[in-house]
Amino acid sequence: MKMKELPVYLFTGFLDAGKTTFIQETLEDPNFNDGLTTLLLVTEEGEADYEPSKFADSGVKIEVIDKIEDLDYKYLKWLEAKTRCQKVVIEYNGMWDLNVLYENMPENWLIYQEMLFIDSETFINYNNNMRQLVYDKLKSAETVIFKKFTESMDKMMFHKIVRGANRKSDILYEYSSDNVELDNIEDPLPFDLAAEIVEIEDKDYAIWYADMNEEEDKYYGKILKYKGRCLIGGGLEKDEFVIGRHIMSCCIDDIQFGGLMAKWREANKLEKGQWVEMTALLKKEYNKMYKSEGPVFYVKELKTIEPIKDEVATFY
Asked: Which of 24, 151, 169, 186 is the most exposed place for a label (fewest CB within 10 A)?
């Protein structure tokens, strides 16, 4: 029997960024708080307190989780049964890893909306000193709201930090409660997709690889040229190799190899880890490595090179 789907509205951000106030106002709104039993899951206490007497409907059940160790699947299922909730609102502790929630969330709990609230006055400091935690909250947020924003702040600096983690989120700058500006800064790709050969510069590899994963269809049938390291063996065919680079999204701990399959008749001459410059046609086809259809390069030209200056690709 299929379990009933529970919509989850997730609000993240660091202490005193405005999450509690926003959730309070949301639950006072009858358009949201429409009579369905709501589980309000609170994982931190800030300066503002909830005022349940002002909620549009009395069917809001508030539960508090003080320790990240208590955020587990069995407990969340128990809360669901206890409250008989029909939707879930989560105020998530900014100092907790979001993956803990994702990994323990019951399978019938589905994120309908994820919003990140940020205090603009402390954001740059947080980003400089706790980059991993900031990136953790940025990477999946649908909407990022910069509270207490002022005309003197460098909008482009804030924009670039968000886009380094998430190229799709909406960005809002809140100067006051009645003065909110939508970020309309364009993010053109730093390479020409209309060129006969699409050349990816070394500094743009991470951006290209992220865009490739999000919108791979637009790259099929194009010839690309870029530099990367080769991986061979491990069950690959004699004419196959993987070409890519290590990518750092936020910090050293999250460095991962981002590469794609390539076919070349002389692949067996390559050495593991060898740096090459490749020009190749990208096709979509089934490959054993993917266990499904996916991007496969057909090499037109390949030459070995010395390792590039910045071997690890970054977004910033």
From this structure: 186
The torsion of the CA quartet 88, 94, 165, 273, rounded to 10 degrees, works out to -110
Query: In degrees rounded to 5, what are phi and psi of residue 85?
Result: -70, 155
Question: How remote is the C-alpha of 151 from its chain's centroid?
Answer: 28
The per-residue pLDDT for range 137-192, each reduced to its tens digit, is 999 999 999 999 999 999 999 999 998 888 889 999 999 999 999 999 988 899 99
Tally of CB atoms within 10 A around 245: 21
pTM: 0.76
Does a structural domain hold residue 191? no
Model confidence at 58, in pLDDT bands (50, 70, 90)?
A: confident
Q: What CATH number is given to the structural domain containing 74?
A: 3.40.50.300
Q: Which two tokens stand for residue 36?
A: 């369905």
CA 61-64-69 angle, to 5 degrees, is 135
Is 26 in a helix, a strand, or coil?
helix
